[in-house]
């Protein structure tokens, strides 16, 4: 034969199919008539098209390697249109200009399952120190009847007789470019290459069923609202008994009757009478670590805070804990009997506070003051 197809594509006789395809795409980008309209270039493009048609087809390549003419029955490469009847696979031309097309071949029935998420309520003490809890999860598991195959017991999937297991069907049409071959997923097997004549009665051929499971979750110390704990492989089993996705447990911390959490610090308010704030006292407080005495020093003012270090929530990352901040609120009596009123008046007289003038501190300007200053140019 006069034409050496290997030389036309610039590859050796031991070239793999991937090397042949890459060589064709490279030359197609250079010699395509839309890119280079020179008549000699068009003839060269017909040659590489014919060479690729032969070398990309294992049967034609074998005939060619044995010295035969694989194009003799197909009418050669120079048919109607600009590209001729030997236009191998039109998608390869498209790949050369627009990148590789989607992967050909049958789709797998086995696919990874979706991730799942549930919400778990925890108490403040559990979030602060960590705990272990059991949760119930409704997810898809592998069908116990068909073990994920999707076929009824005693049967199995069969090769699709429409696409013969390829998962796609091809159609040849004629256009101004010549004969164009297009492929699409097989409508009978939906691209899987196999069909299930008798689906499993338990899972209806999906290979999975829904079931309730009980899982043990370890809650680390220091979790907060919105913290997500990942349990790998505990999510939904995929179609066809595919690998399971992940399960995410989202923490929701329940409100506490005494403490308010801000980060890893805890805050609470203790209300004491005016006399206790003046004279000092000790208040019992049930902390996360047990009962403790809060030392209220004499002269404590309303709004002051007393920190208890390392009495808060454990740091999620790193050692140590936050603090417990006790805010003091001084309660002024609103009703006094005559004896109490007389005693307070005597105290006020002894302290010289019968007619207090008050102490005013500079504060923020009001809206009208700021407008007045603005008009006055201050």
From TrEMBL:
Domain CR-type stretches: 130-212
**What protein am I looking at?**
Chaperone protein DnaJ
How does the record comment on the protein's domains? The J domain is necessary and sufficient to stimulate DnaK ATPase activity. Zinc center 1 plays an important role in the autonomous, DnaK-independent chaperone activity of DnaJ. Zinc center 2 is essential for interaction with DnaK and for DnaJ activity.
Question: Cofactor: bound how, per the entry note?
Answer: Binds 2 Zn(2+) ions per monomer.
Write the lineage as a comma-separated list: Bacteria, Bacillati, Actinomycetota, Actinomycetes, Kitasatosporales
Matching entries from Pfam families are given as: DnaJ (PF00226), DnaJ_C (PF01556), DnaJ_CXXCXGXG (PF00684)
Subunit note: Homodimer.
Q: Which SUPFAM superfamilies match?
A: Chaperone J-domain (SSF46565), DnaJ/Hsp40 cysteine-rich domain (SSF57938), HSP40/DnaJ peptide-binding domain (SSF49493)
Q: Which cofactor does it need?
A: Zn(2+)
Give me the gene this protein comes from.
Answer: dnaJ
What subcellular locations does the record give?
Cytoplasm
Q: Where does Zn(2+) 2 bind?
A: 160, 163, 186, 189
- The record lists the organism as Streptomyces benahoarensis
What family is this protein classified in?
Belongs to the DnaJ family.
């Amino acid at each position: 034969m006069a034409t050496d197809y290997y030389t036309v594509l610039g590859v050796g006789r031991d070239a793999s199919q991937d090397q042949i395809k890459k060589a064709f795409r490279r030359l197609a980008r250079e010699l395509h008539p839309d890119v280079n309209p020179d008549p000699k270039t068009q003839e060269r493009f017909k040659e590489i098209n014919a060479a690729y048609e032969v070398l990309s087809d294992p049967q034609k390549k074998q005939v060619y390697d044995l010295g035969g003419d694989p194009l003799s029955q197909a009418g050669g490469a120079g048919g109607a249109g600009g590209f001729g009847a030997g236009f191998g696979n039109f998608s390869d031309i498209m790949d050369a200009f627009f990148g590789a097309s989607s992967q050909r071949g049958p789709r797998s029935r086995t696919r990874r399952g979706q991730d799942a998420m549930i919400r778990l309520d925890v108490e403040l003490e559990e979030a602060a120190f960590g705990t272990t809890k059991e949760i119930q999860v409704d997810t898809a598991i592998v069908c116990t009847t068909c073990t994920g195959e999707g076929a009824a017991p005693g049967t199995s999937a069969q090769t699709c007789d429409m696409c013969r297991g390829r998962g796609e069907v091809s159609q040849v049409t004629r256009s101004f470019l010549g004969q164009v071959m297009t492929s699409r997923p097989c409508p009978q097997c939906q691209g899987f290459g196999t069909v299930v004549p008798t689906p499993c009665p338990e899972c209806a051929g999906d290979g999975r069923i829904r079931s309730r499971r009980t899982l043990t979750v370890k809650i680390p110390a220091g979790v907060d609202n919105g913290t997500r704990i990942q349990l790998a492989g505990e999510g939904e089993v995929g179609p066809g008994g595919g690998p399971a996705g992940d399960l995410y447990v989202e923490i929701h911390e329940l409100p506490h009757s005494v403490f308010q959490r801000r980060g890893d610090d805890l805050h609470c308010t203790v209300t004491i009478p005016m006399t206790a704030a003046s004279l000092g006292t000790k208040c019992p407080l049930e902390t996360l670590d047990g009962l403790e005495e809060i030392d209220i020093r004499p002269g404590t003012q309303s709004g002051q805070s007393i920190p208890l270090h390392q009495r808060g929530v454990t740091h999620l990352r790193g050692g140590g804990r936050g603090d417990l901040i006790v805010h003091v609120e001084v309660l002024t009596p609103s009703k006094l009997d005559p004896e109490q009123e007389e005693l307070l008046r005597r105290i006020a007289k002894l302290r010289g506070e019968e007619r207090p003038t008050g102490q005013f501190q500079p504060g923020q300007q009001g809206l009208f003051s700021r407008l007045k200053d603005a008009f006055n140019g201050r």
